[in-house]
Design brief:
It contains 13 helices and six strands. The protein has 261 residues and is of the alpha/beta class. The structure holds uracil (URA).
Length: 261
């Protein structure tokens, strides 16, 4: 037999061997480089990565608060938490939202600002407090030397919301929505571990203290999750009621004094 016939025989033999392996259930090809199986045997068996986010199957028919609580508990880092929130399917608001708005600013900041929920601008951009109210808020905090863009923990802000999805037509969040997302909010604050929490408006005040009445509560320091908490009126309220800016300024000075103290 000539060389051409040998090659043809090899080719047919290889094809037949492959067909036999496929029939026998082989479903993977092997690499070109040889593998020393003795070396592999000495390697520690790899731990299967523990999924942080609840799978859709784990969520169906479950109590939303419980699913959120378990998913939040598993999150060991802010990236884990972002993934867990993004995978959470039991809040109806998610269906109408363009983006999951997680947070902005410096995670090392001493001051964490907790808002209510994204509006249209935030939903579009995927970042909290970027619309008119957010721009006013940036100016207010810059007036006491704090900024979300500061790389220095002493002068930085970290900003997030109770709800990561925009409520349709900017309606107020419902109590059930606040309650189901609370485990994520609590975990978020625990992971950032700020020195001080500032809540902007009734929704975050309610989420962290179970009380409402921001106009009475503003400026009065209390405690939540083991941290000093300062309630302030929401910047959207200040846009509608400019005369309330005086009190907001007093609250900012109180925050500044607390941080210096
Ligand atoms: N209002 C909020 O409470 N949060 C935002 O991110 C934007 C507006």
């Amino acid at each position: 037999m000539g060389i051409a016939a040998d090659i043809a025989d090899d080719w047919h033999a290889a094809l037949a061997a492959l067909a036999w392996q496929v029939e026998a259930g082989a479903d993977e090809t092997i690499g070109d480089a040889p593998v020393n199986r003795y070396d592999l045997a000495t390697e520690a068996p790899k731990q299967a990565a523990r999924p942080v986010a609840a799978t859709p199957a784990e969520q169906v028919g479950s109590d939303p608060f419980e699913v959120a609580r378990r998913a939040a508990e598993r999150a060991q880092t802010l990236d884990d938490l972002r993934a867990a929130i993004t995978a959470f399917d039991l809040c109806e608001l998610k269906k109408g939202a363009r983006n999951t708005v997680f947070a902005d600013g410096n995670p090392k900041a001493r001051v964490l600002i907790l808002g209510e929920a994204p509006g249209a601008d935030e939903d579009r951009e995927g970042r909290p407090f970027v619309g008119r109210a957010g721009q006013l808020m940036d100016k207010m905090f810059e007036a006491i030397g704090l900024s979300r863009t500061s790389p220095d923990a002493e002068t930085a802000l970290y900003i997030t919301n109770v709800l990561p999805w925009r409520p349709p037509g900017n309606r107020d969040p419902e109590p059930a929505e606040i309650a189901m997302m609370r485990p994520f909010v609590e975990r978020h604050i625990a992971l950032v571990d700020p020195a001080v929490i500032v809540v902007m408006g009734n929704t975050p005040l309610d989420a962290l203290t179970g009380t409402r009445g921001i106009l009475r509560a503003r400026g009065n320091w209390s405690q939540a999750l083991g941290k000093p908490l300062l309630p302030m009126t929401h910047p959207a309220y200040l846009l509608r009621n400019p005369s309330a800016k005086r009190e907001a300024w007093a609250d900012l000075l109180s925050l500044q004094a607390r941080l210096r103290g």
